[in-house]
Amino acid sequence: MNIYYMNNTLYVNFEDYIDDISVDKLKSRVFNILDDYDINNIVLNIISNNKDNYLIDEFIKEYHKKYNGNLLIK
After folding, report:
1. How far apart are CA 13 and CA 3, in angstroms?
2. Distance CA 74, CA 70 (A)
3. Could you give phi then psi for residue 40, rounded to 5 degrees?
4. CB 1 within 8 A of CB 32
5. CB atoms < 10 A from the CB of 44, how many?
6. One digit per residue, pLDDT tens: the chain, 74 residues?
7. What pLDDT is recorded for position 30?
8. Would you tell me how many other CB atoms lie within 10 Å of the CB of residue 18?
């Protein structure tokens, strides 16, 4: 997982195999950054071969419950 900030946007390249552990790690890292900084735009780029839509959907739901920013999934 590679996370960087540029032009008022947090970019997350998610290259890990998508499972419960990796998505929990994703949530922890991204949500901790969002709690510390005022970032409204996030781009989540999923580079993994397996795209478990259920786990990604859960991440999106939890993001929208906690934050009011823009989330783009690629």
Report:
1. 6
2. 13
3. -105, -15
4. no
5. 19
6. 899 999 999 999 988 888 899 999 999 999 999 999 989 999 999 887 776 678 889 999 999 999 999 999 98
7. 96
8. 20
